[in-house]
Design a protein that fits this description.
Elements lengths: L20 H4 L3 E5 L5 E8 L3 E7 L2 E7 L8 E7 L3 E2 L3 H8 L11 E13 L2 E10 L2 E16 L5 E12 L18 E15 L6
């Protein structure tokens, strides 16, 4: 189900100006539900396997425009202290000055600057990712999973996607050489997003 286009009764795809009213109704402000969302990462370790981890504490908002996707935006704040790879010693190292230095830089943030539909249910959002004291552009490819009303009457939307970054671009340069060649931690890191967001209800007058 595409947010920004629909199929006509003849089966052809309508133009971007012929927005499905049902989907256009998704337009509004949303709050990311952290208990039903995940922000995670995957990085190659010792050249032979992958280490996976999550950031357990995060918050954010989405502003969706079902008629004009270019007007949509996203904002996410992640508490680095909540990093969890399943190994307490490794997590402590990641929190240290060798990596994130959480005492000085407790948060990682993303602020979108543009959004577009790539095709079908595929979308692309570009923005500024800040880690420590470095801010650089980041593009995330997302798939729209649809909308639903949960048992509590909340209107939800879901997106899933990711991107790959070079951690050294954000000053995360710690590494160690292996006796057999190569390094302990790959420079390439996959960032993964699985987002469920709840539409904000109008404030009572």
């Amino acid at each position: 189900m595409s947010l920004f286009s629909r199929k006509s009764e003849t089966g052809s795809t309508a133009t971007a100006t012929e927005v499905n009213p049902e989907l256009a109704a998704l337009t509004g402000e949303y709050t990311i539900d952290p208990t039903h969302s995940s922000i995670s990462f995957q990085v190659r370790h010792a050249m032979v396997t992958n280490v996976r981890g999550t950031f357990g504490k995060h918050e954010g908002t989405l502003s969706l425009d079902g008629s004009k996707p270019e007007n949509s935006s996203a904002s996410i704040d992640v508490e680095i202290e909540s990093i969890d790879t399943g190994a307490p010693d490794r997590d402590g190292h990641l929190r240290s000055a060798d990596f994130f230095d959480v005492e000085t830089f407790p948060k990682m943030t993303f602020r979108s600057t543009s959004a577009e539909q790539v095709g079908g249910d595929e979308y692309r959002i570009t923005g500024d990712l800040t880690i420590k004291d470095v801010t650089k552009p980041l593009t995330i490819d997302l798939e729209f999973h649809g909308k639903a009303t949960d048992p509590y009457g909340n209107e939800r939307v879901g997106f899933e996607g990711g991107t790959t970054i070079s951690r050294s671009d954000w000053g995360l340069t710690w590494n160690a050489a292996l006796e057999t060649g190569g390094v302990v931690v790959s420079d390439k890191v996959k960032l993964l997003f699985d987002i469920s967001a709840i539409k904000n209800k109008p404030e009572a007058v």
